[in-house]
């Protein structure tokens, strides 16, 4: 096992030589000024630094020593630095600790005492590294690629795991960016159709006049520009899985044709007459309330019943306790490795901002913010400014008022229930343990607008 590395920044050759033989359990390297020290940190990657504040060209003062300390902590925030000060210079020692030094030791040096201080610093460094490693290690999830410690998300993953082995249609319900396609792929790869094709199509991304041809294919000459026969996505997915993302955006005129295919497992290409039998598992996804839309004519109810064999609700990131920071650390480690970056973590302002942000774009937004921040960060720690987020302000006296706190918690619970239920008032009331009339009263009390889709349906 290699020895821990100690970098000694000391301009006195005699004292530097004493340090070299005084710590046989450490691999000691030396630097005599700020330039040499910074170069040595980059080259040697020491585990701990012993820094004398009296360095040239200000060997009789402390300005150069403090400048060296600030430069080290700015670029290597996690690196513990022990400062050596002259007798009676307690004010300088306290200032050094305030600037980020781990500890200090007064000269003349007592090797035994200094060894104890260095040992503590090394143990702290090891503990911090282990904590970072554990924090970046996600809680086991049944699904590869899904990182979560939230019980609601784990419940959705376990449900997907159970459904993978049966070919019932599955409807994934959740906001954009919550990972619906990852769960759809898991339903395919964890089931008996894994060796067959997985075909995904975004119903919102294809114009209405082309979507039918994308799904069912067309014969040569079926319409202008159809210069050859083309298989549709149903034929391409034969034996496997077809993922219909944003199914709520499908035009009503096309929904009847999709329903017939689902009922009979037979497709006809545009311009063709021969029925083509297919064996396809359907997984669909939406961020809309299709039940409400089926009641007001915006989506066919019979098609919804075909698609909604088993619904899987995916909680938004704001409702996944602790997942924002867990995912952020995972993404940061990945981008640092991919791009050879020096960033290693998040500072206090960043962690507070990550926890406080509402994440309207969910995991997709988080990934993009961390990617940008990893590229823009100046030091080894990402800040809230790098993430383009604002750290929450310190709590005011109102935050200590129990009535204010209860009201805030009540409003947050109502908003989470509405989000989790897809704005279904009946389901939200059930989750909150209140009646629907009581929920209406709570919405009015907190100034929360009644969801339009449900209000119209009710």
Unreliable spans: 453-458
Report the oligomer: single chain
Helix content: 40-55%
**Structural class estimated from helices and strands:** alpha/beta
Strand order of the largest sheet: 2-1-3-4-5
Cα gyration radius (Å): 31 Å
Description of the structure:
The protein has 458 residues and is α/β, with parallel strands linked by helices. It has a five-stranded parallel sheet, sandwiched between helices. A five-stranded parallel sheet has the order 7-10-13-6-14. The chain has helices at 13-22, 34-44, 63-75, 90-98, 111-136, 151-163, 180-189, 208-216, 233-236, 252-264, 290-295, 301-307, 323-339, 348-356, 362-376, 402-420, 425-432, 436-445, 452-457; strands at 5-9, 27-31, 48-52, 81-85, 103-106, 170-173, 198-202, 217-218, 230-231, 241-245, 266-267, 276-277, 281-286, 310-313, 345-346, 381-382. Helix 6 (151-163) packs parallel to helix 7, helix 13 (323-339) packs across helix 15 (362-376) and helix 16 crosses helix 17 (425-432). The model is unreliable at 453-458 (pLDDT under 50). It is 47% helix and 13% strand. The protein starts with a strand and ends with a helix. Strand 4 (81-85), helix 4 (90-98) and strand 5 form a beta-alpha-beta unit.
Summarize the structure.
This protein has 19 helices and 16 strands. The chain has helices at residues 13-22, 34-44, 63-75, 90-98, 111-136, 151-163, 180-189, 208-216, 233-236, 252-264, 290-295, 301-307, 323-339, 348-356, 362-376, 402-420, 425-432, 436-445, 452-457, and strands at residues 5-9, 27-31, 48-52, 81-85, 103-106, 170-173, 198-202, 217-218, 230-231, 241-245, 266-267, 276-277, 281-286, 310-313, 345-346, 381-382.
């Amino acid at each position: 096992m290699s020895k821990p590395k100690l970098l000694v920044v000391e301009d006195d050759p005699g004292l530097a030589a004493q340090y070299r033989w005084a710590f046989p359990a450490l691999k000691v390297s030396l630097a005599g000024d700020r330039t040499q020290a910074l170069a040595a940190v980059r080259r040697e990657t020491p585990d701990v630094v012993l820094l004398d504040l009296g360095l040239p060209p200000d060997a009789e003062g402390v300005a150069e020593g403090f400048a060296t300390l600030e430069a080290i902590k700015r670029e290597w925030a996690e690196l513990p630095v022990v400062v050596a000060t002259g007798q009676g210079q307690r004010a300088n020692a306290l200032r050094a600790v305030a600037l980020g030094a781990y500890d200090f030791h007064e000269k003349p040096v007592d090797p035994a005492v200094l060894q104890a201080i260095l040992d503590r610093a090394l143990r702290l460094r090891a503990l911090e590294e282990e904590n970072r490693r554990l924090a970046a290690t996600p809680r086991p999830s049944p699904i590869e690629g899904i990182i979560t410690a939230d019980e609601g998300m784990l419940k959705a993953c376990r449900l997907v795991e159970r459904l993978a082995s049966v070919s019932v249609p599955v409807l994934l319900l959740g906001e954009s960016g919550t990972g619906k396609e990852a769960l759809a792929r898991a339903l395919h790869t964890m089931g008996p159709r894994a060796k067959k094709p997985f075909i995904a199509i975004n119903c919102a991304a294809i114009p209405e006049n082309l979507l039918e041809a994308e799904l069912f294919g067309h014969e040569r000459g079926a319409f202008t520009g159809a210069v050859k026969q083309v298989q549709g996505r149903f034929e391409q997915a034969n034996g496997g899985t077809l993922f219909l993302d944003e199914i709520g955006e499908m035009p009503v005129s096309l929904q009847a044709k999709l329903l017939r295919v689902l009922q009979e497992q037979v497709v006809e290409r545009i311009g063709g007459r021969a029925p083509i039998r297919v064996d396809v598992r359907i997984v669909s996804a939406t961020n809309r309330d299709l039940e409400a839309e089926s009641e007001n004519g915006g989506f066919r109810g019979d098609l919804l019943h075909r698609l909604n064999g088993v619904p899987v609700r995916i909680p938004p990131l704001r409702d996944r306790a602790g997942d924002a920071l867990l995912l952020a650390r995972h993404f940061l480690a990945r981008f640092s490795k991919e791009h050879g970056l020096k960033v290693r973590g998040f500072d206090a302002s960043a962690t507070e901002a990550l926890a406080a942000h509402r994440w309207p774009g969910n995991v997709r937004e988080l990934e993009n913010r961390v990617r940008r921040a990893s590229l823009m960060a100046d030091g080894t720690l990402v800040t809230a400014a790098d993430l383009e987020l604002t750290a929450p302000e310190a709590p005011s006296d109102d935050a200590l008022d129990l009535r204010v706190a209860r009201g805030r918690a009540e409003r947050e619970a109502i908003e989470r229930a509405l989000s989790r239920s897809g704005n279904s008032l009946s389901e939200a009331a059930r989750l909150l343990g209140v009646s629907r009339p009581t929920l209406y009263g709570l919405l009015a009390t907190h100034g929360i607008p009644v969801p339009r889709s449900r209000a119209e349906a009710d």
